[in-house]
Design brief:
Helix 1 packs antiparallel against helix 2 (145-158). The protein has helices at 125-139, 145-158, 166-175, 184-207, and strands at residues 15-19, 22-27, 31-36, 45-57, 60-67, 71-72, 75-76, 78-85, 90-98, 101-108. Strands 1-2-3-4-5-8-10-9 form an 8-stranded mixed β-sheet, with no helix packed on it. Strands 6-7 form a two-stranded antiparallel sheet. It has 3 domains: 5-108, Distorted Sandwich (Cation-dependent Mannose-6-phosphate Receptor, Chain A), CATH 2.70.130.10; 123-175, no CATH class; 179-212. It has 218 residues and is of the alpha+beta class. Residues 119-218 form the DMAP1-binding domain.
């Protein structure tokens, strides 16, 4: 489980919705299934997605992504579940905006409070501090909006709210062997250290009578 703790009470429960000949079932933090209620010998019954991660927009939980469902042509079925305020817990609407990508609307009184879906309160103190630091860096104009969003994404991934993609994992590994600076301060510090090392190396070369040719750019 991840996300707002008050939503965990939905775990272990399932909510169904019938439209035409199909019955949809949403089990929060588990999966979404579809069952064709006909007497056809090949009536479809399968998984439209398994609990994967949150969708976060404007620092607010806006939906749950259920991914890696049954295969559909060249991809897997997936479902986004929108959480909206309602008088009772119920699956209210189902659609298929694009092939094998489904959209469900789930009503619940658990999200009616204006602060019920805020991301910040769900984080640990350590991650909240990281977020505060990112806010300060943005305020001081030491990072760009893009850099700020990148830092937030890393915080959400560390909190288990988002799943790191394979590309992100490769990027994290490459960071260990490449020079990459998220802030001006870090870049300046690294530059100073490198400059000192270059001076030492030039002295060492001079002591051994080796000519040094280069410029500041190199």
């Amino acid at each position: 489980f991840s996300g707002p703790a008050h939503l965990f009470r939905l775990a272990g429960k399932c909510f169904s919705f019938v439209e035409s000949t199909y019955k949809y079932e949403f089990c929060p933090f588990h999966n979404v299934t579809q069952h064709e209620q006909t007497f056809r010998w090949n009536a479809y019954s399968g998984i439209l997605g398994i609990w994967h991660e949150w969708e976060i927009n404007n620092n607010t939980f806006v939906g749950m992504w259920m991914r890696e469902g049954d295969s559909c042509e060249t991809k897997s079925r997936q479902t986004k579940v929108h959480l909206v305020c309602g008088k009772s817990n119920k699956l209210a609407y189902v659609s298929e905006p694009s092939t094998c990508v489904y959209s469900l609307t789930f009503e619940t009184p658990l999200v009616c409070h204006p602060h019920s879906l805020l991301v910040y309160p769900t984080l640990t103190e350590a991650l909240q501090r990281k977020w505060d630091e990112a806010e300060q860096l943005l305020y001081d104009e030491l990072i760009t909006d893009q850099g700020y969003k990148k830092l937030l994404k890393e915080i959400f991934e560390e909190a288990g709210l988002l799943k790191a993609t394979e590309e992100n994992e490769v990027e994290k590994q490459s960071k260990k062997i490449t020079l990459e600076f998220e802030t001006v301060e870090k870049c300046s510090k690294e530059y100073k250290q490198l400059s000192e090392e270059i001076k030492k190396l030039r002295v060492l070369l001079g002591q051994h009578g080796i000519a040094y040719k280069g410029n500041s750019g190199e």
